[in-house]
Amino acid sequence: MTRVFVSATDAVADIPDGASLAVGGFGLCGIPDALIAALADGTATDLEVVSNNCGTDGHGLGLLLEKKRIRRVTASYVGENREFARQYLDGELEVELSPQGTLAERLRAGGAGIPAFFTPAGVGTPVSEGGLPWRYASDGSVEVASPPKETREYRGRRYLLEESITTDYALVHAAIGDTAGNLVFNLAARNFNPLAAMAGRVCIAQVETLVEPGVLDPGMVHLPGIFVDRVVCTGRQDKQIEKRTVASRQDAAHRQRDGVPA
Asked: Is 187 part of a structural domain of the chain?
């Protein structure tokens, strides 16, 4: 049965040291920011995180990084977080990089009970051949490197074996949820959130709007409540922009002069 919690703090209170977390969102879009902030306000440490990226400096999972509460990260993209790069290069953080589509499928497969699958992504690269630095030593040498992966040929093409991912907990964000755990995601927030939710043994969902069972049209539901264990209504959070790029007034004037849309 899905349980409704009154606060994000209560919803994540039992996450222990060393727990593994699948965290939804892409960049700062659709991230469970209230749950992450509540976790950062707690004491859980040595966490293993699986997420497309690890937030930015001061936002999302970056809050946990700043407090050095993350031991290991499995991700696809980590280019917008200076503290992440520092910890990784200084040997304070273990990092497993995975192609984005592969990471998504590893989470989905974990939630579906599939232990592993073959994919062409990464064949002939260090992803399959091994040697990617997972952890650096303090002197800059590679302390832990990725192992080689099994490859096979099917129908004249090489594929490599990728293992699925399951985690102790999943933290996700949805636009609407009901008290039975059925979730609706908004546009691009539907990227990694359903997959992360499926992969977690205990899924905690923060929702902007909470409704009673029966309000949601079944055809609207993106993730059925069978995958969700806890729901907390956090309301609409402030939406952060990962990278803001604006044109100078001079550039804008030139574009207007040349008839280029702003």
From this structure: yes
